[in-house]
Amino acid sequence: MLTVNPRQYLSQQAPEISPYKNSDSYLAEEKRVIRQLLEALLFEHLCDYSYHDGFFYFTLGRSFYRASGRISGFSRIRINAEEMFFSQRDEMHVDTKFQAQWIKDKSQSIDWQPITLNALIEDLPASVAVKKKLAIELEQTVKLCQWNNKHLNRHISRRELTYTQLESAIDEGHPYHPCFKARTGFSELDHKLYGPEFGNNFQLHWLAIRRCYLKRRFNSVTEKIFWETELGEQCYQQLNTQIKNLTSDSTAFSLMPIHPWQWKFLKDKLEPAIADGQVFYLGEAGDQYQASISIRTLLNISHPEKANIKLPLNIINTSSLRTIESHTICTAPAISNWLIQILESDNYLKQNMILLAEYAGIRPTNDGTEHQEWIENLDGQLGVIFRQSLHSYCDEKTVIPFVALSIIEQDGSPFIEPWIAEYGCHSWLENLLEKVIIPIWHLLVHHGIAIEAHGQNILLQHKDGWPEKVIVRDFHESMEYVHNYLAQPELAPTFTDFEEEYSFGGPNQYYWMESVEALRELLVDTLLVFNLSDLAVLLEDYYQFPESEFWKSVYHSFRKYQQSNLTDQKRIAQIDLFQPEIKTESLLDKKFRGNRETEFHHHIRNPLADAALHDTQKETSKTSISVPAVPGKSYAYNK
């Protein structure tokens, strides 16, 4: 085990390969987009490449490419944005199988030029239609990053900000996906008004919709009590008065909030329903809200203890259209109730996890009524989910979004610099794993439920930087389970009670999976591959804490849990976390194929398997000196 002096790790100038540096130049933003696009291409095996002496060599379209970088944990590619080059090739034929090696051998004689975004898009292995769509998203990402650099008054340090302030101040975007700030559909003004970066406050707009066209789940409270609690009596009466002024049949209508941008986008499509007296527009009313990092979820600024509101938006960001699948909206409270039951019956989870429940949902529906075309046409584009605020549980000054752990301040040092200086990499990391990662692992192996624990969905509660609890949220879209792996299947919701479409759904379509492999993939993808792996690189780049030691620490935290006997060994073994190769989601490949409904995957190397092997060798030869093999300087991947 690596022994460190807690104050030894004061950040040093990170190498140029570090993906965390900020710059206010347009060129730097374009380079970041190019870098992340190249990293995703290579990581997802969308082209053959060779890796020699710190350089990647590969061919795309009509060009040769060369970029410096390294391969980090879980096969993540890390490229140096200052050393990315291409050269348009002549008509000379080179066997595809040997192209990457040929480029490497001829590298000295090739006329290398800095890569431009337009040239790279032209060379992508995708259809013309996909390239055009992708070009719009990538250019918008560059444009909005440039706009931020020009107009944002960034904090020199964000370390003293509250949780709500951090949801606005963390503007880096997704560290993997190249379309990390696409927000297709947003103008620059929309970006300023409704993007989280500017912390702008705004009111929700309101619709009155005939109650027979709404499905609602309020968790056993009456509609009147629900709205008076959420809006306050005065605002609720104000909206009801407006409805009475618009129709003599006011008792037949109920409320639906809508994001101000979404109202602007949908008002023409709602016009027939409004003209027919099925929908009334009531204008803006109620509390002031601010967008969170996830854009769709809004934080109540007027009354922070009140619900976070999740509303659909017809914009594209990273991989997805940011609407909300209709079937999840009224199912959300049932899922949260299930998870609360589990948490309250488990002393370990009660001590280590806070769950922000989604306790109400409303959406339009055609169930049991005359079929309305506008409801079908606007599927997923209208609806709302109410989620508990963390203010119900703790002081927001002690909470940060998990993504904050991998961000860099304007002075060039990591956000976590004071914490590492105080506690040291090893001690702080061990506690982080114990308090954040293991409770999520326990929920999976002990109870049989996997949640999407990526950096936006989990929060860290800490005391002066020392991790104390994990806060989890956002379960309605991607909570997963396998029925025969549930520890208490009798507690599971009967999903067909909530949505008729569940009756026709097979395994892997909604929440119930066919195999525990799917549960492992969800946990590994969101918690490790696209989350902790970025922290591992940061600790190595800034504090010289070897990435191999990082993954050994992760491995040992899982082993420590296994040895605690909290959970039956056979249940843990079923998840098989330490196999050498694992499957991960291919986010860019999915975008290239233009298929929203299907998931695409590729295989990656599992660093936990290497740590497990090292541990096994150590156990079997304690009396001998074991020298780990030095990885070779060359690596090649062919599809």
Low-confidence parts lasting 5 or more residues at pLDDT below 50?
A: 1-24, 625-639
Overall pLDDT: 91
Give the class from helix and strand content and strand pairing: alpha+beta
- Number-wise, the strands total 24
Q: Characterize the overall form.
A: globular
Cα gyration radius (Å) = 26 Å
Beta-strand level of the residues, as a percent range?
A: 15-25%
Largest sheet: 8 strands, antiparallel
Number of helices: 20
Give the strand order, joined by hyphens, for the main sheet.
7-15-16-11-10-9-6-8
Q: What is the terminal separation in angstroms?
A: 37 Å
> What portion of residues is helical?
25-40%
Protein traits:
639 residues; TATA-Binding Protein; 8-stranded antiparallel sheet; 6-stranded antiparallel sheet; 20 helices; disordered N terminus
